[in-house]
Specification:
six-stranded antiparallel beta sheet, alpha+beta, elongated, 166 residues
Length: 166
């Protein structure tokens, strides 16, 4: 089985006005622009009165080499999502108000093709390979996935901050 090391965890949280559809598109496009393949594991909506509760689970994967893969997990929870109209430059624009929260996890996946798993001896060799032979490369990739996860969070926060001020 592939070895998954959680490198970084963070959260994006806001309460206010934003455009959910645009925010969803922005985050998806940003990940795709960074060469991640995004898989939506879950999307559920629960309507209560005039508001919605939305849950989304994403797994974004990016191949680094035949041995390494980056994975960013994004678990969305949007509560009290309501459609509203906002006056902007003399025009009425449809937007949303609510409380989006995205829990983001950056993961370094080793041996995702399961090449070192067939026999116990190969698994033992993988341990030696990881600890002694490519230790510096692993540390380099850990720093890189941390940077990419932090950048994703920063981009999300910036989008929400700009949307709320418009």
């Amino acid at each position: 089985m592939a070895e998954k090391d959680t490198i970084f965890k963070g959260k994006v949280q806001k309460k206010g006005i934003f455009d959910f559809k645009e925010f969803y598109k922005f985050t998806y496009d940003w990940l795709c622009g960074e060469d991640y393949k995004v898989i939506e594991k879950k999307y559920s909506e629960e309507i209560t009165g005039d508001s919605k509760k939305i849950e989304i689970k994403w797994e974004a994967k990016k191949k680094i080499s035949d041995y390494f893969r980056f994975m960013i997990k994004a678990d969305w929870k949007v509560i009290n999502l309501k459609d509203i109209e906002v006056q902007r430059e003399g025009r009425k624009i449809k937007m949303n108000s609510g409380e989006p929260e995205i829990k983001v996890t950056g993961i370094l996946v080793k041996d995702y093709e399961h090449r070192w798993e067939d026999q116990p001896f190969w698994k033992f060799l993988r341990g030696i390979y990881d600890r002694y032979i490519i230790k510096s490369r692993i540390e380099e990739y850990q720093d890189k996935i941390k940077e990419e996860t932090e950048e994703f969070i920063a981009q999300c926060k910036s989008f929400l901050a700009l949307e709320g001020k418009r």
